[in-house]
Amino acid sequence: MSLNPQQITNTKNELQANFELSGLTRKQVASDLQISLTKLDHLMTLTQESLNDPWILRNYLIEKVEDKGEKPVPFTALTGDWHRHWFLNSHLIDARQMSAGDN
C-alpha cells in the first residue's frame, strides 16, 4: 500500500506532533527503538524503505504520549489493526523489530 501525497504530508505531521507530545528527545526515541538517528530521520520523513517501521514508530509514540496522560494526535492513514493489513508483518511490528540498517 502506498500513500498519496496528502496522506504522506498528514502522516509526517502526525508523527511530528506525537513526537512533540511525547516529550522525548530524538536520542531517547532512537535508543528505545535501537535505531540510529539517521534511521529515525528517515522514519519521520517517511523515506524509510520498510513498511513495518513507520507502524512501529507510530505505536511507540502513541504509547509514550498515553504514558504521559496525554491524548495522542490521531493518525489518518496509519489506522486500523496492523494485523489485518496483508502487506505488513504484524509479528515484527508487535515485537518492535525494526528493519536492519538506516534505510
UniProtKB/TrEMBL annotation:
InterPro entries xref list: DUF2316
One Pfam assignment: DUF2316
Domain of life: Bacteria
Name this polypeptide is given: DUF2316 domain-containing protein
Organism this protein belongs to: Secundilactobacillus silagei JCM 19001
